[in-house]
Amino acid sequence: MTSSSPGFPDISLSTDRLVLRPLDEADVPEFTEMMNDELVAAWTSVPTPYTRADAREWITLRAPAERAAGTGVAFAVTELLTQRLVGTVHLRNVDRRVRAAEAAYVIAPWARGEGYACESVLAAAGWLFDDQGFERLELRTAADNTASQQVAQKIGCISEGVLRNAWIARARTEEGHWTELRTDLIVWSLLPEDLDGVAEELAQGGTYAYYPNWPGRHHS
User: Fold this and answer.
1) Between residues 149 and 3, which one has the greater pLDDT?
2) What phi and psi, each to the nearest 5 degrees, are found at residue 20?
């Protein structure tokens, strides 16, 4: 059911293998390590190096502010059995009039190749469409980021075109420093009816369940 509040609810989504929940301050160490991965630095705009202060600001201030304002939702993606942080899914650039948003995600290096990106983005997309009444989800992938393009294809996205020279990626120089490179972006879209074509993937990943008013973890 779509809420009349401008903000997004504090909820958790679960699949057979994963839990998507609000980020918590206890995630700071693992989140910091994940965001310092070479591929994350190359294909995203996060600060490099990424510090614990950066992580704490995002987790405790900026992400909750986005959720409260209804401009975005950031989920921590954790393994159901181990509760280990495997990644994050960020629904951002929300346009409530058009009922559209953009999905961005990061998967920790050790967790790649397990299908976690597809499973977590599908769970977030299903919730956004079914519970929040949205009609469109976009993914934007850098032209050379073939791994993200494969994720978009596997979850049923349709490639809509190329935004030329629209992104700045990063690459290592021979001296080991980061340098910035302009690149194209491929725009992908996912509509509610597109999920019908990935029913098998959803079944393999497990149907997702909602847990409203997620309490988070308590610390001593």
Assistant:
1) 149
2) -105, 120
Listed residue (55, 45, 4, 8) closest to 170, CA to CA: 45
**Omega within 30 of 0 (cis) for the link into 29:** no
Residue 6, amino acid:
P
User: Comparing C-alpha atoms, which of 129, 131, 149, 132 is closest to residue 140?
Assistant: 149
Chain CA centroid to CA 76, Å? 8
Residues 6+ apart with CB under 8 A from 119: 15, 17, 18, 201, 205
Fold of 13-203: Aminopeptidase (3.40.630)
Contacts of 80 (CB under 8 A, 6+ apart): 14, 15, 16, 17, 18, 19
Contact 169, 180 (CB under 8 A): yes
pTM of this prediction?
0.88
**Rounded alpha-carbon distances, angstroms, from residue 133 to 148, 196, 203:** 26, 16, 22
In the chain, where are the structural domains located? 13-203
Tens digit of each residue's pLDDT (9 = 90 or more) over 33-47: 999 999 999 999 999
